[in-house]
């Protein structure tokens, strides 16, 4: 169900209503790779962003927590005005580890609740003693640990029932894994976050999720052009696709705005990342035009490829993406 949240007198940000009734902004700020620019968080809030997406693995929760605290103390907003998403690292799925990491994340974010909390990856890795790192073998691959999805999901359910998490979900799982968790769960997943852009539109996954009444969040919605080389493909630039360039000219919009408008009209949440104030404002300026059905189809007819491969974990029996295993299992590890 799509509704709207007032942003200013002239702009409204749509939101998705999750299965538990929680209102989830349809456009938010991704913060992966932002470990040094707290001013970007404040600038985004000034512009009207109300969804901040982070994770323990991003190593920026403390920075974000401090930025939010300062912003709230300045009297601009209150905690209830901002929707925070965070995620449990894949090397902390053992129940005793999960409890410790959740406590650390709440402390770093300087909050007593997180609006949406996700299991970050389907595969579990052993954790190095007293380190926030996975154990790796001699070839650099993660060493799997023996923790079932149901075990770690029970931890999320516990915190949801306490009110510490207002919604819970998954990120980087496949359909079979999601269905198994859904069938076994007392609290059904409220959200799934996955890679999604015009090179990897996730059409089948989104249809699957909607049938289960699970909301969807697209990460890398404009192709994550600044992605690092580790665990990702070096090729695949969504901005250079001919339909994107042509539509940007036709609608007198930036290429990013065309891509984000495409996500908006498909009806789910997108979390573009930026620390550039100009780009932050541009990414929000997508509510004054609409792509025609014909132009939406032009963005569908592009060669598809996954950009995020995370090949360091392909030896795990719970690695979610068969296409990555088939393509990269016999290739040298991307470091």
TrEMBL record:
Protein name (Swiss-Prot/TrEMBL): NADP-dependent oxidoreductase domain-containing protein
PANTHER family, alphabetized: ALDO/KETO REDUCTASE
PROSITE patterns for the chain: ALDOKETO_REDUCTASE_1, ALDOKETO_REDUCTASE_2
Site feature (Lowers pKa of active site Tyr) residues: 87
Pfam families from the UniProt entry: Aldo_ket_red
Active-site residue numbers: 58
GO molecular function (one): oxidoreductase activity
Entry superkingdom: Eukaryota
Binding residues for substrate: 120
Organism whose genome encodes this protein: Panagrolaimus superbus
InterPro entries: AKR, Aldo/ket_reductase_CS, NAD(P)_OxRdtase_dom_sf, NADP_OxRdtase_dom
